[in-house]
Write a structure and sequence with these properties.
This protein is α/β, with parallel strands linked by helices. It is 36% helix and 13% strand. A hairpin with a 6-residue loop joins strand 9 and strand 10. 41% of the residues are buried. Belongs to the methyltransferase superfamily.
Length: 797
């Protein structure tokens, strides 16, 4: 009956039973789906639930802004069609890491995780729901394959899915870690090894994305729950990304911070690097124009009008001497209106731009120099190489002697009406602003082969012959003093009086030079231009001094050093001459150019050089070094157009090696030896080069825009410890011509600081280089000048 009863019921109500059955099945299926969803979501850590929920609420908002691939994935969230229809194959690195769940991140944010996610996903091949979820097992395979294809590239093919699952289940570690453990290293214990592996596989990140990565991972998690369509990979069955892996990826990202640096770390490192190469306070450098009475011709130590006004007397040209301010200026000197780049040598010897040196009458004061042929004993360019031209005018004498391989140091006082030194420098002829007043000239004793003076206005004989005795200090034993007077001064009544004065001076000079034991070589008059020339030669022994009837002028005390020249008062006395063969000055240097490449005869191996070697070896090593630097770097590597370079300054010369290495070029080099450095300036002169003592805590005695190229070898680092660093930078700007260059060799931190400072001055950084904490900086000055002015009160009349 039961069967009949049930049979009757089923037969009678088959349609109703069928619907009930379908309803039950659907209900059960929905329950199973709900249980699966609850089980799947249960693997997300509690601490990330807020982030996950927040991201779930944001998933649908930016989808319309994503690329076509993201849009296709969004449209297929509810379907079970293979993702390959919309996204295509994921081989050869052309598809993004998370093809099957793009989320709402932009493409670049997804790409960042290519190196992180593959490694991190592998660490989570065993999510909590793996045992009860076949779909989760299917997702493990694409992750393993992506790892093998991108990170490791050591496997010939993908491992079996069950094998991977078994390994992960037993070991509890990702597959990548298993491979590393085979080689004896573990990522968890060796975070630095992740960096090595990343470098080995050339995986580059833009930095950890921090919160962006979290958003991506959580949104991928939601997509994984809805997008059940398998993603097909080349030669592999379609599989689904595991839903539970996203929580483990988040944990892996935290663990791997030591291997794959975070965005915060990389940003910090980048800022530190930029802080070294670009100034920490780049925007704090504020430049102003110097507002002074001298304007574009401002020389701080010669235009200190406040100090000059306090002088008790100017009888000995004290107002033309150096009076440096206590606080050197840090402003920039303005340029003359209409300034142009200087004309190149040798054209500049005969022609310059008027607006660069707007003193028209200077061009008229150009004497003829034919008389130099009438003194064969001098042997220009052979025996006589280094010349001092006192009262040089516009330095025509020095310019003329360049063709004879003679290097002339011209000096004249600063004259606001004529600016003779500025005119000489613009012509490409060496010159400094100086005066024979109350102090010694900044040169060592017994270094000049010839001293020349073309004016009769200097009262050589007064005050016991003090001025002429200073020239005697500078002149080598056996050197020449040439005194010439051009007839141009006889044209005007004033010049006639001066010429008469010269005649009186000749008489006074005759008596003085005899007392100084100077020999008269010749007193002649040039037949061509009427120039009168008197040539004297300094004695080479002390016998004459001892045989004089009177000790007038007297001999200096033995304690008086003839090489002492920085702010030392003039003395009306003569220094004894060196006698021993090993003493400097007892012999004449070798002829030019042989003298440039050899250590001076008076250097002995018992003396230690600046670089620690025996002094003669030190000089040779220095010369060889700079020859290599000039040949390999300065002439070729830096890209300097040497046809635009004429006036060069080595701001920290040692033995003059740079100048010697450049001697084949049409340049001259002013070698600066700091007053607190080893006194090597006599060596420089002995080699047939020239230079001057100076203190870089003060301004240099030259006009603005004087040099085409400055060279500073470890100067700035020394000044930084000693005095005003920014004042030296301003001084560099003052003496360097627009479009001029500076080469700085110094410590890396100094190079970085200077680079930022020069950038703030709108200079062009041509090259920077560093190695072993040492660096090189090559910069070119521009025409830029600031708008705001700074009034220098002590330089205002």
């Amino acid at each position: 009956m039961a069967l009949g009863k049930y049979s009757r019921v089923d037969g009678r109500k088959s349609s109703s039973s069928y619907c009930s059955t379908v309803t039950v099945v659907v209900f059960v299926a929905l329950c199973l789906v709900g249980v699966w969803m609850m089980t799947s979501s249960s693997v997300v850590p509690v601490q990330n639930s807020d982030v996950s929920q927040e991201n779930k609420n944001e998933v649908k908002t930016p989808v319309t802004e994503s690329n076509a691939e993201n849009s296709n994935d969004a449209r297929n969230d509810e379907s079970s069609k293979p993702a390959v229809e919309d996204n295509g194959p994921r081989d050869e690195g052309q598809q993004k890491q998370f093809e099957d769940s793009q989320g709402d991140l932009p493409e670049d944010a997804t790409k960042v995780d290519n190196n992180v996610s593959t490694n991190q996903v592998e660490k989570n091949d065993k999510p909590e729901g793996t045992e009860n979820n076949n779909a989760d097992k299917q997702e493990e395979k694409p992750v393993e394959e992506k790892k093998d294809d991108v990170l490791e590239k050591k496997e010939d093919g993908p491992k079996d899915e069950s094998e991977n699952a078994a390994k992960n289940k037993v070991d509890g570690e990702p597959q990548v870690e298993n491979k590393e453990s085979e080689s004896g290293e573990t990522k968890a214990n060796n975070p630095d090894d992740n960096e090595k592996k990343s470098e080995e596989n050339s995986v580059k990140t833009d930095g950890e994305k921090g919160e962006a990565q979290v958003v991506e991972k959580e949104e991928n998690k939601k997509d994984e729950k809805t997008d059940q369509g398998p993603t097909e990979k080349k030669d592999n069955p379609p599989e689904v990304f595991p839903s539970g892996a996203q929580s483990e990826l988040l944990n892996e990202s935290t663990i791997q911070n030591g291997s794959f640096s975070t965005q915060a770390t990389e940003s910090k490192n980048a800022k530190e690097v930029q802080g070294a190469s670009q100034p920490q306070n780049q925007n704090t450098y504020s430049w102003k124009l110097c507002n002074t009475t001298a304007g574009p011709d401002y020389i701080p130590c010669l235009d200190n009008l406040e100090a000059i006004m306090k002088l008790r007397t100017t009888k000995h040209y004290e107002h033309r001497e150096r009076h440096c301010p206590d606080n050197p200026p840090t402003c920039l000197v303005p340029m003359p209106e209409g300034y142009r780049r200087s004309i190149e040598w040798p054209t500049s010897r005969e022609k310059i731009w008027y607006r660069n040196v707007p003193h028209s009458k200077l061009a008229e004061v150009k004497g003829h120099q034919n008389w130099v042929k009438s003194v064969p004993e001098v042997a220009w360019g052979k025996r006589s190489r280094v010349v001092l031209d006192v009262g040089c005018g516009v330095a025509s004498f020095g310019g003329f002697l360049f063709d004879r391989d003679v290097l002339t140091m011209s000096l004249a006082p600063k004259d606001e009406h004529e600016a003779q030194v500025q005119f000489a420098l613009e012509r490409g002829i060496p010159a400094i602003s100086a005066v024979m007043g109350t102090k010694r000239l900044p040169y060592p004793g017994r270094v000049f082969d010839v001293v020349h003076c073309a004016r009769c206005r200097v009262p050589w004989h007064i005050e016991g012959g003090k001025l002429l005795l200073e020239l005697n200090r500078l002149l080598r034993p056996g050197g020449f003093f040439v005194w010439s007077a051009t007839p141009i001064y006889q044209k005007l009544p004033e010049d006639v009086e001066i010429w008469k004065l010269c005649a009186l001076l000749v008489t006074a000079m005759k008596k003085l030079t005899q007392a100084m034991c100077w020999e008269v070589i010749s007193i002649t008059k040039d037949r061509v231009n009427g120039v009168g020339i008197a040539v004297y030669r300094k004695t080479t022994s002390n016998e004459c001094y001892e045989q004089r009837p009177t000790n007038d002028p007297p001999l200096c005390k033995d304690s008086d050093d003839p090489n002492a020249a920085w702010n030392v008062p003039l003395q009306s006395c003569m220094h004894k001459l060196p006698v021993a063969p090993s003493e400097r000055g007892s012999q004449w240097p070798e002829q030019w150019p042989a003298r440039v490449g050899k250590p001076p005869y008076w250097l002995t191996s018992s003396e230690v050089g600046v670089y620690g070697k025996p002094a003669p070896e030190d000089v040779v090593a220095d010369y060889e070094h700079w020859k290599r630097v000039v040949s390999n770097s300065y002439l070729n590597g830096l890209g300097i157009n040497w046809s635009t370079v004429r006036n060069v300054m080595d701001m920290r010369a040692v033995y003059g090696g740079l100048a010697a290495a450049l001697r084949e070029l049409n340049v001259w080099v002013m070698n600066i030896v700091s007053i607190d450095a080893p006194d090597t300036l006599p060596i420089i002169y002995e080699r047939g080069l020239f230079g001057i003592y100076h203190d870089w805590c003060e301004s240099f005695s030259t006009y603005p825009r004087s040099y085409d190229l400055l060279h500073a070898d470890h100067l700035f680092s020394k000044i930084k410890k000693k005095c005003n660093f920014m004042a030296l930078v301003a001084e560099v700007d003052r003496i360097l011509r627009p479009e001029g260059k500076i080469i700085v060799r110094d410590k890396v931190e100094i190079i970085s600081e200077l680079e930022s400072i020069f950038k703030s001055m709108q200079w062009e950084i041509r090259m920077t280089y560093s190695k072993d904490k040492e660096g090189l900086l090559y910069v070119q000055k521009t025409m830029w000048r600031p708008k705001e002015q700074e009034t220098i009160t002590y330089a205002i009349a």
